[in-house]
Amino acid sequence: PSSLPASVLDLAPVVPVVVIEDASDAVPLARALVAGGLPAIEVTLRTPAALEAIRGIAREVPEAVVGAGTVIRPGQVAEAVAAGSRFLVSPGWTDVLLEAMRASGVPFLPGVSTASEVVALLERGVREMKFFPAQAAGGAAYLKSLSGPLPQARFCPTGGIGATSAPDYLALPNVSCVGGSWMLPQDAVAARDWDRVEALAREAAALSAGGTC
Ligand code: 3PG
C-alpha cells in the first residue's frame, strides 16, 4: 500500500462510515465511493466480514484510503493494521487503547463527547479526535462552544449526521471532516445499487466544495 496519511482529519472532508455484512460487497462499494469523490473509507469492526472487507479494499482499490472504525479493544489494532487499515477510529478511548493505537504507527482518532475527555486527550498529546455521537451529543452548536476554551482540538464529528447537517459542522473552525453513513442507505447496499451509492457520494463530496480540509 502507498504511504500513510499524516492525519486522519486531512484525508477528505467527508468520510463514509461503512458496515459490511458481506465481504464481497466491499470492493464494489469502495469503488463507488471513490468514483463519487470519497476516497477515505472507514470500515467498522462491527461485523465478522469487516477485516476481510478491509483486506479486499486495500488490495483491489488502490485509490481508496481504507481505515478501521469501531476499534474498541487494544487487540483489534494489530489485526486492523495487518489487514491493511491506514487509519484507526474509535467511538471512545481508554489509556490502554490509546497506547495500542499510538504504538501502531498509524494515524488514529479517539472518540470524545465531553470537554473533560477533550482536556484529557490534550494532556496526552492528542489533538485530533472523533466527536461521537455528534448529533445526539449536541451537534454543531456543541462543537462550536468547545472551540472557545479548547481551540487546540480538531474534530471529525460522526453519528447521526446527514447531507443537511454536514455543512453546519464543516463550517466550524475546529472541524476538518465529518463522518457518516448517509451516502450508504441500507436498501441501496442490500440491492447492490452501486450507481446510487456513487451518486450520493458525489453529492456528499460536493458539500465541501470551496472549503479546505
Ligand atoms: C458510527 O460509528 O456508527 C458512525 O458514527 C456512523 O454514524 P451514522 O451511521 O449515524 O452516520
UniProtKB/TrEMBL annotation:
It comes from the Bacteria. Pathway: Carbohydrate acid metabolism; 2-dehydro-3-deoxy-D-gluconate degradation; D-glyceraldehyde 3-phosphate and pyruvate from 2-dehydro-3-deoxy-D-gluconate: step 2/2. GO terms for molecular function: 2-dehydro-3-deoxy-phosphogluconate aldolase activity. It catalyses: 2-dehydro-3-deoxy-6-phospho-D-gluconate = D-glyceraldehyde 3-phosphate + pyruvate. The keyword Lyase applies. Keywords: Carbohydrate metabolism, Lyase, Schiff base. Homotrimer. Belongs to the KHG/KDPG aldolase family. PANTHER family: 2-DEHYDRO-3-DEOXY-6-PHOSPHOGALACTONATE ALDOLASE-RELATED (PTHR30246:SF1), 2-KETO-3-DEOXY-6-PHOSPHOGLUCONATE ALDOLASE (PTHR30246). This is 2-dehydro-3-deoxy-phosphogluconate aldolase.
